[in-house]
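Hello, quick one for you while I still have it in my head. No rush at all, and the record is pasted right below.
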Amino acid sequence: MELFAPEDFKINIQGVTAAVTEHNVGDQQLFRVEFEDGRNPLNVIRASTVNGKMWMSVPQGRLKEAELAGQQISEYFKNKK
C-alpha cells in the first residue's frame, strides 16, 4: 500500500456535484473533475506563480472553474485531517 495513494472523492461546486480523481503526473499532482451536469471534465493543478500559488486548468482557458474546483479540493483535504 502506498503511503500517499491517490484518492477519489466528490465535491460540490456552486450546487453541482463533481467526482474528483487524483493523479500523479511526473512530479505534479493533477485532479480530474467530472461534473454531474454533463459539462466537459476539468483538469486542475496547483501552480506556483510570481503572485503565489493558484489553481489552474490544464489545458488553460477555464481559470474561473479551476479556482472554484481548487477551493473545494483544498477544503476536502483540510477537513479530512
